[in-house]
Amino acid sequence: MTGEIGFANGAFGADRSAVMLAAKAVHGIELTDLQQLFLSGDLTSRVEDGRARNLIADAGAKYYWRWRPDWLLYAGPPARSPIRWIPTCSCCSAATTGLRGYPLR
């Protein structure tokens, strides 16, 4: 488990004061010699004026199964939930939805 705390203030060039918080936990489980399961959870937020802003909870599970010496099955559906989302910029929406744009060649 890891955690981070940050501080934004006008002295550092920010337009408002806030405390940024982040926490992450990962746990691995070996099901058999050939199968592993990894569970993860993230929580990020910003606290302004005593209220949480942009509180986002992520959870995920990754499953690995080496069913042949040269073959590996991987399954990993993510789950993201903006709990107290306040959009402050257009670039934030791509981070929460997972939508990306790539040029076709």
Brief overview:
The chain is mainly β and 105 residues long. It has one helix and six strands, in the order ββββββα.
How would you sum up the global shape? elongated
SS field, number of helical segments: 1
Report the mean per-residue pLDDT as an integer. 81
Profile the largest sheet: 6 strands, antiparallel
Describe how the helices and strands are arranged.
Elements: E1 2-8, E2 18-30, E3 35-48, E4 51-68, E5 71-75, E6 78-84, H1 91-97
Antiparallel strand pairs: 1-2, 2-3, 3-4, 4-5, 4-6
Kindly list the characteristics that best describe this protein.
mainly beta, about 100 residues, 1 helix, about 60% strand, 6 strands
What would your notes on this structure say?
- With 105 residues, the chain is mostly beta strands.
- The chain has one domain.
- The chain has 1 helix and 6 strands; from the N terminus they run E-E-E-E-E-E-H.
- It has one helix spanning 91-97; strands at residues 2-8, 18-30, 35-48, 51-68, 71-75, 78-84.
- Strands 1, 2, 3, 4, 5 and 6 form a 6-stranded antiparallel β-sheet that branches.
- Strand 3 and strand 4 (51-68) form a beta hairpin.
- It is elongated.
